[in-house]
User: Fold this.
Amino acid sequence: MMFLVRLCFVFFIVAGVLFATLNPQAIQIDTNINDLNPEKVKDPGLQYALDSLANDISQRFTVVVKGTDKRSTHNAVNALQTSLDELPGLAAVKNERLLNDYLPIVTPYRFNFLTEAQHKALKNKNAEQLAGEAQRKLYQLGDGVRLIPFEDDPLGWFSDYLLAMSGGIETADRVTEKGESVVSFAVTFTDFPDNMAQQFSLYEQIKAAEQSTSHKFDVTVLHSGMFFFAVDSAQSAKADIQLIAIGSGIGVLVLMLLVFRSLLPLTLAVGSIAAGVGFGVLASIWVFGSVHVLTIVFGASLIGIVVDYSLHYFYHFLSGKNASESRKGHSDNVLRRAMLLSVITSLVGYGALSLANLTILKKIALFSCSGLAMAWLSVMILGPLVVRRPIEARQTMLKSVIRGWQNVFARRPRVLTAFGLGLAGISVVYLLVGSVNVNDDPRRFFHVSPALLEQEQAVSALTQVYEPGRYLLIRGQHPQHIYDAFDALYDFPGASREMVTGISDWLASPEDQKRNYELQATIYADGGALDVFASALGLPAASLAPVKAAYHAAEGKVLHFSTLAQQVPALPPLLSERVGQIYSFALIRKNSDLKALAAAAEAIPAIEYMNTLGDATRALKSQRKSGATLLLIAYGLVSVLLAMWYRSASAALLLLIPASASLIAVALVAASGQALNVFHIMALFLVLGLGMDYVIFAREMTAQPETTQQAILLSAVTSLLSFGLLAFSAMPVVQAFGSIILIGNTINFIAAISLFNGEPEQKE
Amino acid sequence: MKKTSLKWLTALWMVAVLASTAAMAGQTEASEESLLSGLFPSNCYFSGHFKQQKAVKGLPAALSSSGDFFYACDLGLVWHTSTPFSEAVLYVNSTNNFTAQDDGTLSPLSGVARYIMSNIFVRLLEGDTRYFAEEFAVSQEETKSLVLLPESEMMQKGLEAIRISKSGDKTAPVTLNIKVTDATGQDTQVLIEQIKHYNFDGKRKAYEQCLEMYSDKTNWCQVLRSPSRYDAL
Assistant:
């Protein structure tokens, strides 16, 4: 059995090393901040539609150029678009590109479209009147602009239709504010950078292009988009990773050298860390396809946990090396029991994170559990090989530190216990009646640089016309159902079509298209307005034959939005079809009556009012509450495990240590001004796991209390180093996690080292 | 159909078609402005006649029309086509513009017509050299005509050039010739002649002159003076 385990271990290590060496591009670091949002969509079709929309948004960003001189501003736009086009994987969306894509698709269906005025004219005027008006327009100064040739649209109705939809010349792309010329344009990713390094490199190139344009043309260049948030988060996370990894690494190295005065024990510690972290990375890639950057931030703190196994192993070895053979055999068994129970409780703690409905916590749980298991296995398998060479520990220093702690805390264990429980009780009271600040707003979870935030707000003020995070979701089995729902919405009291933008603004419904086509028979029939118009202008009848033929050929043909969207990639994915179900999104314009729209959505079965921020906040609140319930369940399960393991119901009382530590930690964090969220709750699972580690080792290794305490001290120092560094992260979620574990685990350590020793004078 | 989503798409097209720019290398806006100021009207009140020839690709002959106009800097513009049919465009300001049929019916002017009236033609009559210097690249041909060329690629897709020339002096009558060539090579030529300048000292006098010119269409001048009266009319 042991042979098989070793074989598997060697296989995983070799396979992992080979995979990472031969296939390094497969190791992708993911920076998707959506992983912090709860999963709530159970409908795969809707999920697909939402993913398409989110993907489209993440695949583009907006650039705004602002200057006092209009010409300079436009020159700057042209220069910047050229510069951005030259960057790998980027394409500036020039407005003529959209028009060039759009016109050829819509033109064959031009007989299906009418403005309201044209609609009215067809109903109320005869052929002579229609022809007369068309003729007049030809003469009018400035009118008669044709988007398609005269012979394809002699009366200019289709051109008028398109132009009428413009509603004026003021556009989102040309806004003048306080005398400044403002031009905005979109940039799409034709090839999204694969990893953090490439993203950052591209970000630097974009910044350089913007700065160069800004200096050359004396304009202000702003940008906005998820890409910049992802890069900003990644950079922030990178700093955290460096802080934690380097801090933990140096801490562990110094500790090992100080204590063992040899690099040999370090090899096991470093080997187990490498095996654990490496396996965690591979498991994440296997299951999720990439490693999330926040996983690495949290994962870096694993160093502090993983090294515990090496420390306990060496201390056991040192304490047992002078014992008799029979005594040594017993000691080995005790160590295996303690190590096994320790890893199980840690796995329970970390594994519980996967119960949360947050993708990021599932990823952290997988990374941590697989990493812990592999690190534990590496210590258990490689440990006996490492300890074959003599190892000495410098125990005097550790003893004096422990004695110092015990002099402070362990003189009166009962008083300490009573004090701890009392403090926990006060914490409970404070948490219940102390108006503790709670905030589940997901925006609080991110760290965004003030400069980026300021830029985002400036861009939003200049270009954003829609309510952020709010939209209507419309479902149907047929495209016409979507349009019918839009019509019902427009007719709803308090709501109006000006409040939303959806597919109906880009394309008439299939039924309307058919109706419009039929109405235009007044124009294209023999003797109709077109013939009268041609006669007035002296045009030969044959010259109009092609357009008449085109009209007849277009009978029964309808352009669907899905076709349009396929042919015009610059259009947002406002409609998605999957397994016979159609999903459509309607964006809500700013300053709309949100209550009226919500009421309309409530009344119209096909429409759902979506408030992503509100929904996410509600879901995170629910997660926080259900997380607290799950924590209680975890305590229940561990208490049963302890009772069964020690065959004593009173063993469950050991849980009072992590429970008190948790309560005190939460109360202190809340009192320090942090608003509690789901990440604080999730950190409590680790307080439970780590606390049980110490308690179990202290309880199991009572035969060598000094050795055990030294191992616990070293273990606690490394863990606190890692999680303490998390508490100083710039990312609020990481900070929340780290601060709870820092405080909670300190209390765990004090309790473990003070409550399992009897009186100090009775010790070895 | 609501006029929203295609707004930016088609509006930019309109800009491409109607506006025109392009800078001549080395020429500053100041020198462009001085070139334009030599051609553009400088008086605040004037009237005149116009002749327009519009060539539309696909039509065998150019479309000819003619009429008269009255411009007052504090009222606006009446652009009255008399042949081949009677119709007028009333430009009051950037948001209030109307077409007036011969039967007296007024309707708001929208879309392209409004754009060209507000941003090209009326600014020309206003003598807004700064606007043209900013929006257009201006140069002078050997014939003394000013050429305004589109600057951006997008605008060049809609418009090839605008040519403006002036003839006459203190002794001979002044005429202004404006020729717009679109990207497909179609020309619209407007000849402004019989220009008569007025030296009014207020809006009221200008209004009275308007009434005198269009005595049978008094509502035109009323709307010009008070656009809010459109609903009442």
Remarks:
- The domain at 21-224 of chain B is CATH 2.50.20.10 (outer membrane lipoprotein receptor (LolB), chain A).
